[in-house]
Amino acid sequence: MRLPRAPKKLPLQHLGKLLRASGWEQLELPATLWSYLDALEQLPRFEEMEELCTSLTGLSLIREEQHLRVLDYEAQVADGRLPTRPNNLHDFLNILTWLAFPQLKKAITESLCNMHKDKAISDPQRRAFVHFDENGAILQGTHVHALSDLQNHHWEEAAKSIESFNLIIVGHGLLEKLMQPYSGITAHTFLVEFVNTGANTEDVSITQRNTLNLNAISQELSKITSPRDLATIPVELFNAFRQMTKLDGYPQEIFRAIPPARQKSTIFRVPDQRNTKEE
Fold this sequence. Notes:
Structural class: alpha/beta
Oligomer: single chain
Number of helices: 13
Number of strands: 7
């Protein structure tokens, strides 16, 4: 089934709104960055991106004049240099994901570099990490039954509790798709069941807890062994994206376009760093 594409891409002024809908407002990002994104009318000049990246990530930008092989690209990033094409939305969004998820992006880069060195690492594992880097999302929850509905593509059941989950878009390629949205966009999703550790973190803010949880997830990425570990989740399950894209066809057409899971994805169990003290 061919699903309808939106008539035009979202203007850059909507980027801040999109990132908020993508769960980024829960992160420890400086207020000046949000002001910058909300005022953005065109892609920044390379020098402006370079200043933004260096000041907030410690990475230095280098101009990518020609397409690099994956191995060369990852090696450059591992050395602290981020190849970037001027006037390119995809690469600008990649810079923003480095600002938002430094530990996660570092873990992905290190894993891919190690995989290239280790011939014993399977191609499916490499593909899974590339899929997650480009098109990934993290879906956090505490109710394993609801997570199982997503795992098994039981869409009607999942939709009943979907808003109780915490979705964070981490893939810059996925963000690029959402800037020119169409029905049926899916995310390669790391499903997380948070496990109550009984730790008392009452003095930690919500954004700090989310940072702690993301860092814990970064340490679990090595458990991904193939793309099948990542759940295929339609982003239109979430009301925030439906409101932004204003696309028709939800829910029946979306659910029919994504068939039942042939093989279950993985639900990763991660110690919850959020406040677990009874109120």
